[in-house]
Amino acid sequence: MTRLWPLAALAACIALPWLPGVPVFWITLLNTIGIAAIVVLGLVVLTGIGGMTSFGQASFLGFGAYATAILTVRYGWSPWLTLPVALAVAGVAAMLIGAVTLRLSGHYLALGTLAWSVSLYYVFANLDFFGRNDGISAIPPLSIAGYRLTDARAYFGVVAAGVIVAIVLTRNLLDSRVGRSIRALRGGAIAASSFGVDTPRARILAFVYAAMLAAFAGWLYAHMQRSVNPTPFGLNAGIEYLLMAVMGGAAHVWGALLGAGLVTIVNDRLQDILPRLIGAQGSFETIVFGAILVAVLQAAPEGLWPHLSRARPRARRIVNDAPPLPMRDMPAPGTAVLQVAGLRKTFGGLVAVNDIAFTVAAGEIVGLIGPNGAGKSTTFNLLTGVARPGAGQILFLAQSLVGLPARAVARLGVARSFQHVKLVASMSVIENVAIGAHLRGHAGALGAMLRLDRAEEARLFAEAARQLARVGLASFADRPATSLALGQQRVVEIARALCLDPVLLLLDEPAAGLRHHEKAALATLLRLLRHQGMTILLVEHDMDFVMNLTDRLVVMDFGTKLAEGTAATVRRDPAVIEAYLGAPA
Ligand code: ADP
Ligand code: MG
Q1: Which atom of ligand 1 is nearest to the CA of 556?
Q2: How far is the centre of ligand 1, averaged over its atoms, from the C-alpha of 381 (Å)?
Q3: Residue 326 lies in a domain
């Protein structure tokens, strides 16, 4: 039931204008809300979920509105034909603007959006082409089969259909392979790129999608208002859309609708009441809105929606008989999988990794050990393209990894876990695991929006479920990832890595935080993987775990290699005993 009431509320809003005696004024207000909601849905993807704050969405409304205004008024196009043009104009503009501004991060990005939104406003307001401050009027109304949609009620039909389409497309997009890469941008970008996600591309995609939704809203606005001028596409409007997203709950599709509704209605009421109360004309509502925003951010930083809905994410249905994904061939046992020589990394004056050399052969479990700060995790980062070595060679199956970005290293078959767990907090365990299979799927954004990706998604999730069962966490599949104990989250990371179908598995302290029997189960799993031909490089502090499991050890201290060999030889090595192991066991 809890899942249904937002739908019921939406249905009620859509039914309202058709009831007899409903004032036109209300219907007009609903039209305004619907158009705003479409813009805010884009902001949900971009800001709430993708983590990129944009003050500039109103500019993209402007692109859509001016595109249709110019083509219909000056060139006599049918409004229906201008819609794809409006979307394309905004899409191309977003790609260009995005290519420049999306390199910025955090506050700088937000400032960047402020900058171009202000400049675009002046472009609209100062060029003859856009009709300067007067804008363009006498825009034709939409018409269906000769029937002109000039009254608010008829137009509402179009707006409502537009809102429904935007909701469906957005939900489809978010629940897909591309959607997971957008959802991983906030906080999980390093992990996602280590599984092949092209994170810059995911950012652009979210940006273009939001821009196109805004342009669609602008197109609707132009044919409702029948005239355009620069004011509704300026910075104030951009701030208001962001306010709607934040108030409603920026990370939630239903929050977009709630925010658009609340802000539009409150704004309308305040514009009416405040001047009478204060006894003077002016945009006093802006001041009140500022105060409301601060209050909401204090009391409900996630917005209002999460406080209204306690619905847990729906359990994902796994199609167990989905055809399994193709698997790579494992190299023959004994093949040199990893050959590292002269590897070096400095941070300022600190030599974190100093001329490290070692090899790992197919079907081996090699332990990389050493005290805290020895340079083990940095070595992992160098091997996986997360960081660039200052010098040295890394050969993976005779191919150099130096200079490759993380996603290219992943593509070759190198998967890893992180010492500091990197799971996407807003996603369930199984969705996080499915990110590991990113490279084994191909569906793009358009296919996802149109739901053409279901067969592939079924295969990816069947694989994720299989790997989750393999590490013993099947019963946690639908739990929010960060609700698990930290030790279990590390094991989720192993399942995610296995989803890549790796040749080489790099595990950074996988047993930390596990209980005794969980460690034993992990050791059994790693032995089984080795038996199946996988090659494993392992950083771990638990000496019993390491000594019993590994074929060979590489010992590091202060960035340099102290020793290399079997557990027995390393244990007897005087340098190792002195630096690390203490008295011989
Ligand atoms: P380990 O994993 O063996 O505990 P790390 O590889 O994490 O060691 O760290 C090795 C050394 O490099 C430490 O002294 C650490 O402080 C330093 N270090 C690691 N990453 C960075 C970084 N991004 N910037 C500066 N120093 C770093
Ligand atoms: Mg470490």
Answers
A1: 3
A2: 10
A3: no
pLDDT over 90 at 300, yes or no:
no
- Residue after which a domain boundary falls, among 234, 250, 276: 234
- What token pair was written down for 73? 């008024």
Task: Say which amino acid occupies 144.
Answer: I
Q: What is the pLDDT of residues 478-507, one digit of tens each?
A: 999 999 999 999 999 999 999 999 999 999
Same domain, 98 and 210: yes
Q: Give the pLDDT score at 584.
A: 45
How far apart are the CA of 236 and the centre of ligand 1, in A?
45
pTM exceeds 0.90 for this model: yes
- Ligand 1 centroid–CA 371 distance in Å is 12
**Could you write out the DSSP letters of every residue in 178-227?**
HHHHHHTHHHHHHHHHTTT--HHHHHHHHHHHHHHHHHHHHHHHHHHHS-
Q: How confident is the model at residue 582 (pLDDT cuts 50, 70, 90)?
A: low
How many CA atoms lie less than 13 Å away from 577 in the CB half-sphere?
A: 9
Do residues 352 and 380 touch, judged by C-beta distance below 8 A?
A: no
Domain span at residue 39 reads 30-234
Q: Specify the residue with its C-alpha closest to ligand 1, atom 12.
A: 352
Residue 177 lies in a domain: yes
- Tens-place pLDDT, residues 521-578: 999 999 999 999 999 999 999 989 999 999 999 999 999 999 999 988 988 888 888 8
Q: Has residue 300 been placed in a domain?
A: no
> Residue of the nearest CA to atom 26 in ligand 1?
347
